[in-house]
């Protein structure tokens, strides 16, 4: 069992590799609306994710991209290397069918993760239309609205999920 700040959290000592994908405009963190996104930059977020991963015993690989084709290619390229995915599809979430299919083909679980509460955003911007993410229905989990802490929540949850799956399949 692996420790997190002195207390047991992990179910196994296996080191997982988690691919973290941030979609369109996430590279502009720190310049975006601070009431929704805070003041953290993408480089700071990536550093936090890597630090949290190291403390959990998880290797993090990451991509930030404004191009859905680049994201899909990256998923295919790293599918054999990762054990699970975290994805903030950002501006691609309502049209994420290609990404959803790439995750499905990888055969690995993914956690959909958002800085903001996207349900609130869609309700305010298009109250007469019910919009939702094209990824949520197949995601292992959905965490949103906690800014960068959404990433920590997803990372811990996905890691423990992978641990449990490993133990029950052994």
TrEMBL record:
Pfam families: DHquinase_II. InterPro entries: DHquinase_II, DHquinase_II_sf. The keyword Lyase applies. It catalyses: 3-dehydroquinate = 3-dehydroshikimate + H2O. Keywords: Lyase. GO terms for molecular function: 3-dehydroquinate dehydratase activity. It is an enzyme of class 4 (lyase). Pathway: Metabolic intermediate biosynthesis; chorismate biosynthesis; chorismate from D-erythrose 4-phosphate and phosphoenolpyruvate: step 3/7. It comes from the Bacteria. Gene3D superfamilies: Dehydroquinase, class II (3.40.50.9100). Homododecamer. Belongs to the type-II 3-dehydroquinase family. This is 3-dehydroquinate dehydratase. It comes from Corynebacterium lemuris.
